[in-house]
Amino acid sequence: MSATIIDGKAAAAALRERIRLQTEGFVARAGRKPGLAVVLVGEDPASSVYVRSKGKATIAAGMASFEHKLPIDVSQDELIALVDSLNADEAVDGILVQLPLPKHIDEQAVTTRIDPDKDVDGFHPVNAGRLATGLNGFVPCTPYGCIMLLKEQLGDLTGLDAVVIGRSNIVGKPMAQLLLKESCTVTVAHSRTRDLASVVHRADIVVAAVGVPHMVKGEWIKPGATVIDVGINRTEDGLVGDVDFAGAASVAGAITPVPGGVGPMTIAVLLRNTLISAHRRAGVAYDKDAL
Ligand SMILES: NC(=O)C1=CN([C@@H]2O[C@H](COP(=O)(O)OP(=O)(O)OC[C@H]3O[C@@H](n4cnc5c(N)ncnc54)[C@H](OP(=O)(O)O)[C@@H]3O)[C@@H](O)[C@H]2O)C=CC1
Ligand SMILES: Nc1nc(=O)c2c([nH]1)NC[C@@H]1CN(c3ccc(C(=O)N[C@@H](CCC(=O)O)C(=O)O)cc3)C=[N+]21
Ligand SMILES: [Mg+2]
């Protein structure tokens, strides 16, 4: 093993501390806490764990957490009515509806109902469009967390060859947009890509966001490359990523572990987006460089 292990847990803790400090300043000036509303439909254990750790982190940062738990058989109309009430609630700066939703609910109908200026997940098409055109909006938390880890590890990313494996609207596509914004040369691979091994072998930066345990092999990695493993797969061997960690760590320059890599950054960036939303909505300036 030769690669540096990128400590996402430590980076996330440091970011959360910087957020906590700016939250104090916001409360002093605005006279209220930033507020994050999280909506969970049903009782999926993995989703419940995520929502719980998010709620704890929100409160630890000095923000208000509003949790709404709805039964698995809630109607789409009822869920949309809740989103409407959160859109109208002045105490709510950020709204997150935990995905996936049950099959009888149209995720797009719900996601697009959220006020884009409270869409701290960055999933609304208005925010996807803002990201694609260089306007200020909300950037999806997981890809932004990956960029923060990459910049901390590598500094300036200009000119680097980046390969993103996965083209979902919530990870792969926004990840590619953000790497492009950092002036990387970006390739987006997916299930129809031919000879993925040789595509990956060109890359200085590999971001795996697939959902297939251990799919990316060590031999695919260019020696010294930086590997960001977004995958969260629950297997008999516990939580594993999309990258064969042991194989990749023997050739990569640096690599994120699972757990303890990208996952903790996702939650920290969610708080960052909520803090930014609170400042924007209150018309108060914030220190972007400290976030
Ligand atoms: N750490 C975190 O905070 C988060 C982790 N995740 C994890 O990241 C992973 C990806 O999530 P998400 O983007 O939502 O997943 P999706 O299922 O929406 O997308 C998966 C992508 O991977 C591609 N793909 C599937 N199989 C292959 C293959 N054999 N070779 C190449 N590409 C393939 C698909 O291609 P195609 O488009 O052609 O079907 C698709 O674009 C999951 O493990 C998820 O749990 C997700 C969000 C947050
Ligand atoms: N509207 C919405 N927004 C999301 O951001 C969203 C979502 N829905 N649905 C599910 C995915 C997944 N996701 C994770 C966040 C943190 C960890 C995380 O903290 N993982 C820890 C381990 C946690 C554990 O042990 O289970 C780690 O990787 O170290 C993982 C996954 C956010 N998602
Ligand atoms: Mg559905």
Describe the structure.
Its EC number is 1.5.1.5, 3.5.4.9. Residues 6-121 form the Tetrahydrofolate dehydrogenase/cyclohydrolase catalytic domain. Residues 140-280 form the Tetrahydrofolate dehydrogenase/cyclohydrolase NAD(P)-binding domain. The structure is a single chain. The protein is an alpha/beta fold and 291 residues long. The protein folds into two domains: 29-124, 3-Layer(aba) Sandwich (Rossmann fold); 141-263, NAD(P)-binding Rossmann-like Domain (Rossmann fold, 3-Layer(aba) Sandwich). 42% of the residues lie in helices and 16% in strands. The protein contains ten helices and eleven strands. The protein has helices at 8-30, 45-60, 76-88, 107-111, 125-133, 141-154, 172-181, 196-201, 245-249, 262-282; strands spanning 4-5, 35-41, 64-70, 94-97, 161-165, 185-189, 205-208, 226-229, 233-235, 238-240, 254-255. The protein has a six-stranded parallel β-sheet with strand order 1-11-8-7-5-6. Strands 3-2-4 form a three-stranded parallel β-sheet, with helices on both faces. It is globular and about 50 Å long. The mean pLDDT is 97. 5,10-Methenyltetrahydrofolate binds next to helix 2, strand 4 and helix 10.
The CA-CA distance between the termini, in Å, is 32 Å
CATH architect. name of the largest domain? 3-Layer(aba) Sandwich
Instruction: Give the tally of structural domains.
Output: 2
The CATH class label of the largest domain is Alpha Beta
Structural class: alpha/beta
Rg for CA atoms: 19 Å
* Strand arrangement across the biggest beta sheet: 1-11-8-7-5-6
Main beta-sheet annotation: 6 strands, parallel
Number of helices: 10
Secondary structure: number of strands: 11
Global outline: globular
Counting copies of identical and different chains, the oligomeric state is single chain
Along the chain, the helix and strand elements come as: EHEHEHEHHHEHEHEEEEHEH
Query: Which ranges are low-confidence, i.e. pLDDT below 50, for 5 or more consecutive residues?
Result: none
Q: Spell out the CATH superfamily of the largest domain.
A: NAD(P)-binding Rossmann-like Domain
CATH topology-level name of the largest domain: Rossmann fold
Provide the list of bound ligands, each named once: NADPH dihydro-nicotinamide-adenine-dinucleotide phosphate, 5,10-Methenyltetrahydrofolate, magnesium ion
Mean pLDDT: 97
- Measured by DSSP, the beta-strand proportion falls in 15-25%
